[in-house]
Amino acid sequence: MSSGEGAGYGFRRRRDDTVSGTYLGMPAFPRAATAATRDRQLRANLTHATHTIRDKRARAVAELPDWARLRAAGAAIKDRTLRHLDGYLEQLEAAVTAAGGQVHWAEDAEAANRIVTELVLATGEREVVKVKSMATQEIGLNAALERAGVRAYETDLAELIVQLGDDLPSHILVPAIHRNRREIRDIFRERMADWGRPAPEGLSDRPADLAEAARLHLRQKFLDAKVAVSGANFMVAETGTMVVVESEGNGRMCLTLPETLISVVGIEKVVPGWRDLEVFLQLLPRSSTAERMNPYTSMWTGTTDDDGPRAFHLVLLDNGRTDTLADTVGRQALRCIRCSACLNVCPVYERAGGHAYGSAYPGPIGAILTPQLRGVGSELDASLPYASSLCGACYEVCPVAIDIPEVLVHLRERVVEGGEVAENGRRVRLRPARGHAAERAAMRAARWTLDHPGVLRAGQRLAGRMRGLQPRRLPGPGRAWTASRDLPPLPAEPFREWWRRTRGERRETGR
Ligand code: SF4
Fold it and tell me: What is the pLDDT of residues 15-24, one digit of tens each?
């Protein structure tokens, strides 16, 4: 049993998932996180893993004296590209087509799943190998393929562990971060035979033995596969080149051995040229795996005679990205290069784990990306902007300087105020999320009071005189807040009166 599953929230992948959500049925973040924080094994696994990665990242970044300038360059390139995204995407499409590839445009998850499924079925194959891909996790591709009778084999080690365990990823870079070695050994022993070559007899929990078991299990899959599905870290518009960076070599096998390659990539992954790519190939490895250079960087441009896949299909995925682009504050989330540095420093992620975020994107980036891609119409998605203490550690480490706290506050405003958002090209009226009516009323009262200084002054004086009656705990909805905090005592004298008395300033006019 998974540590997370022990919490009783059904983190196992549901067989009846719809195409849009392999995380269907997840409760709002606070409830899922409460359960996760009670799981000691999960917390121990997360604390150990995140602290190890974050320390290594800090050392790798400190080696570069121009890191701050690289970071600023990364942010500027992404912003410029997003401003002219339509032009770069058309340039990319023309270059991919000229190189022998075929480009498909997918407005949403359903369209992307339909396109990929039809492409696979057209080959006559019923099995595909997969390179780790956040985009295909986002759209629930494996479940969609399964419904069409196609079996997708994950080949990244951590994704393999998640798949064999009938589990869900909980980290962008290390999807099985919530598992420890003993749990992985048990999953391999119990489930590998259901998916192909069984685990070796007497498999131990030594990392080298586990890696060898995975290597033997996967090797036959690579050699047999006729179709591969991948994502891409970057797409170079000027030449139509796809780029995948990885550490295990499984990506290289999937990208070169099969006859057909289908890549599902979010439209924000485009970069204008090779000079731009150079910046990200420095930012990404140090931020994600704390390496100076990632072990495998695979690049391909369309198809090539006598080498690599004979057919290449690029599925460009929107699925809420255009709507996100329309939000001048929230669009910075589209700069993300999925390094996961923000997860590893987040005190909330460290305690709650990744499943509580209810999407393929956990941690701080998930808290700002998911509510924009999916909207804040559900209880879960409306709760995500609150999954943060706003400490700002995520912003400090982000290699493309996404001001995550700023976007979180912006999205909280959207949740509280209701209002309209763009969804799938339409203006959608938001219902204020449940539980936020009192907060909204309190904010309106505060705004009115601050707009009327005379009322504010009278209220402060009255509060000062009645301070002896101040309760130690707030009643009603405020009770939860004061259950773990001291209510600050009211001062005997309001600040304005103290200022006037000590500084001898003239009485305020109340303007
Ligand atoms: S938001 Fe920044 S730190 Fe977090 S995954 Fe994206 S690029 Fe990395």
Answer: 333 333 346 6
Residue 116, Cβ neighbours under 10 Å: how many? 28
Is the Cβ atom of 336 under 6 angstroms away from ligand 1? yes
Q: Which pair of tokens denotes residue 493?
A: 């004298």
Number of H helices, E strands in the chain: 23, 12
Distance from residue 363's CA to the centre of ligand 1 (Å): 10
Residue whose structure tokens are 């599905």: 229
Residues 32, 25: contact at Cβ < 8 Å? no
Give the model confidence (pLDDT) of 453-477 as tens digits: 889 888 888 888 888 888 888 887 7
Whole-angstrom Cα distance, residue 165 to residue 423? 34
Which secondary-structure segment (H or E) carries 466?
none
CA of 400 to the centre of ligand 1 (A): 7
pLDDT of 159-212, one tens digit each?
999 999 999 888 998 888 888 899 999 999 999 999 999 999 999 999 999 999
Task: State if residue 75 touches ligand 1 by the CB under 6 angstroms criterion.
Answer: no
Q: In angstroms, what is the span from residue 334 Cα to ligand 1's centroid?
A: 10
Task: Write the single-letter amino acid at 376.
Answer: V
From CA 89, how far away is CA 455, in angstroms rounded? 56
Residue pair 116/230 in contact (Cβ under 8 Å)? The answer is no
